[in-house]
């Protein structure tokens, strides 16, 4: 199975890019993993939240391929411990699906129609993080889950 992380906009801070790149390389030790950036909407300040969500959802849909399992990183999604996330991943791996597609939306989340299309909504925390920080946190948690599945010494519980 392959995992893709789809994000809206670029990661601006150098230190965040470095951290994300570090975990991206670590994850690739276990399975194919790629991060795809969708350019941020132009003139988004002139758009309502609903219009911005709708346009971003259209851009996201263009990236979804047949057979992808769509998982949205959403503040209202299910929270999991790292071990539960590793179990979730393992279930996806044995399901025979081709690609697990995780998506970080824009600043106002996702259009309701995209949420309905998703197989799963996942929350990283009850706290609110910047969309750029979520990328790093997700990459680290993905790596952690893979080390749990492979019995590596990274996770201690």
How would you portray this structure in words?
The protein is α/β, with parallel strands linked by helices. The protein has a single domain (2-149), classed as Alpha/beta knot, CATH 3.40.1280. The chain has five helices and five strands; from the N terminus they run βαβαβαβαβα. It has helices spanning 14-28, 49-63, 82-94, 112-117, 131-149, and strands at residues 2-8, 33-38, 68-79, 99-104, 120-123. A five-stranded parallel beta sheet has the order 2-1-4-3-5. α1 (14-28) runs parallel beside α5 (131-149). The protein is globular and about 50 Å long. The model has no long low-confidence stretch (mean pLDDT 93).
Question: What's this entry about, in short?
Answer:
The protein is α/β, with parallel strands linked by helices and 157 residues long. The protein has helices spanning 14-28, 49-63, 82-94, 112-117, 131-149, and strands at 2-8, 33-38, 68-79, 99-104, 120-123.
List keywords for this structure.
alpha/beta, 157 residues, Alpha/beta knot, globular, single chain, five-stranded parallel sheet
Mind telling me the C-alpha Rg? Answer: 15 Å
Level of helix content? Answer: 40-55%
Q: Specify the oligomeric state.
A: single chain
Beta fraction: 15-25%
Second rung of CATH, namely the architecture: 3-Layer(aba) Sandwich
Low-confidence stretches: none
- End-to-end distance: 27 Å
> What structural class results from the helix and strand content?
alpha/beta
What order do the SSEs take from the amino end to the carboxyl end, as H and E? EHEHEHEHEH
Instruction: Give the overall pLDDT as a whole number.
Output: 93
Instruction: Count the beta strands.
Output: 5
Q: Provide the number of structural domains.
A: 1
The CATH topology label is: Alpha/beta knot
What is the CATH class designation?
Alpha Beta
């Amino acid at each position: 199975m392959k995992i893709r992380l789809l994000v809206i906009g670029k990661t601006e801070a150098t230190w965040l890019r470095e951290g994300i790149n570090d975990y991206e390389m670590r994850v690739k030790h276990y399975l194919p993993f790629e991060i795809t950036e969708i350019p941020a909407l132009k003139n988004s300040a002139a758009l309502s939240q609903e219009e911005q969500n709708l346009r971003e959802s259209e851009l996201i849909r263009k990236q979804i391929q047949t057979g992808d399992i769509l998982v949205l990183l959403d503040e209202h999604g299910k929270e999991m411990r790292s071990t539960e996330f590793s179990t979730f991943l393992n279930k996806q791996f044995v399901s025979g699906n081709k690609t697990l597609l995780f998506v970080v939306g824009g600043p106002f989340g996702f259009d309701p129609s995209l949420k309905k299309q998703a197989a799963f909504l996942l929350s990283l925390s009850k706290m609110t993080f910047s969309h750029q920080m979520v990328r790093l946190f997700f990459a680290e948690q993905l790596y952690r889950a893979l080390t749990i599945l492979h019995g590596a010494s990274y996770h201690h519980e």
